[in-house]
Write a structure and sequence with these properties.
Blueprint lengths: L1 H27 L5 H6 L5 H11 L5 H13 L13 H36 L4 H15 L2 H15 L15 H35 L2 H8 L4 H30 L2 H6 L5 H11 L2 H25 L6 H4 L1
Helix pairs in contact: 1-13, 5-6, 5-8, 5-10, 5-13, 6-8, 7-8, 8-10, 10-13, 12-13
């Protein structure tokens, strides 16, 4: 087990280095001069040159990368051009808002979709199976932004049950905060259920064809015991991997949902920063999202042996 953990940790290090280089390089391809943007259109060339020197933009790209990396390792992601706020606390606070929506949505989607996929596999080619697979296919086909607008229209405007726009922190008002999060969470749950139902069904079907399932039936075990005690654990491994990928993708790609529901999360911060050409914040958001994705996948890899002990042996 220790060897497995060390191997996964060592594999994550090159990924983190590659992510850092990619984020740094992408920011340098964005048109415009950060120094000129900070000083405004009326700035003199000597003022811009002095600002570039202060920001370290007059150095070569390798030097800039080494300085930036050293600062990031110390927790210094720079300061926002727009409001002169430290980037790391800003990104971290917005990330927590996004995580409230994403983590709850993925958890609820998993609790509903995984058992549904297992039941669909158990009742293969039955009316139940066809209904669940058809529902999953439809859910996969619906764009999240359109689904979000549809839920806003129905539950917010037509029925008036839930607030349409805005955000209230759960820390300041638990009831109000939860009401504002119901629709965005519901949107993500409905969309991601399609992926998880299909994955859980495919994994369970594969396991149900194995010899040890046939042996369990020959011993006279009930179908429910075979399904939940013997098949489910081995079938959940691939589904667990997909859950981790969905969690990582949503943490980095929730900008559309946050824009639709005006949630001040990390995705919304990134979109606003791109329009404002706030390069330090864009760079901080990209790096934070990328490292979060790497971390989520690392945790998924480390927990995978709990569902399939054969992985450690390999």
């Amino acid at each position: 087990m220790l060897k497995f953990v060390l191997n996964r940790l060592l594999m994550a290090l090159p990924t983190i280095v590659l992510v850092s280089v990619t984020v740094f390089t992408l920011i340098r391809f964005i048109p415009g001069d950060p120094a000129a943007l900070m000083l405004g259109d009326m700035a003199e060339p000597d003022q811009i040159a002095a600002m570039r020197s202060e920001l370290g933009l007059d150095k070569s790209l390798p030097e800039q990368f080494l300085i930036w990396t050293a600062n990031v390792v110390q927790g210094d992601f720079g300061r926002s051009i727009v409001n002169d706020e430290a980037v790391l606390p800003l990104v971290a606070s917005r990330f927590l808002v996004s995580a409230e929506v994403v983590v709850v949505a993925v958890l609820l989607a998993s609790l509903i979709a995984v058992p549904a996929g297992v039941i669909a596999a158990w009742r293969q080619n039955s009316l139940t199976d066809l209904a669940l697979v058809g529902t999953a296919t439809i859910l996969l086909s619906i764009p999240t932004f359109w689904l979000g607008l549809l839920l806003l229209l129905f539950f917010g405007l037509k029925l008036g049950w839930l607030p349409v726009l805005g955000y209230v922190s759960i820390g300041s008002n638990v009831t109000g905060g939860l009401l504002y999060l119901v629709l965005p969470i519901m949107t993500l749950v409905i969309h991601e259920m399609g992926v998880l139902i299909r994955m859980a069904r495919a994994s369970t079907l594969e396991v149900l064809r194995l010899d040890y399932i046939t042996h369990a039936r020959a011993k006279g075990l009930s179908e429910s015991a075979i399904l939940w005690r013997h098949a489910f654990k081995n079938a959940f491994g691939p589904t667990w991997t997909v859950i981790g990928l969905i969690l990582g993708n949503l943490l980095g790609g929730i900008a559309v949902i946050e824009t639709v529901f005006t949630i001040p999360g990390l995705g919304r911060l990134m979109v606003d920063s791109i329009f404002a050409r706030d390069y330090p914040v864009i760079q901080g958001c990209l790096l934070f999202v990328s490292l979060s994705y790497v971390l989520v996948n690392l945790v998924v890899d480390l927990l995978y042996p709990l569902f399939d002990p054969r992985v450690v042996a390999e």
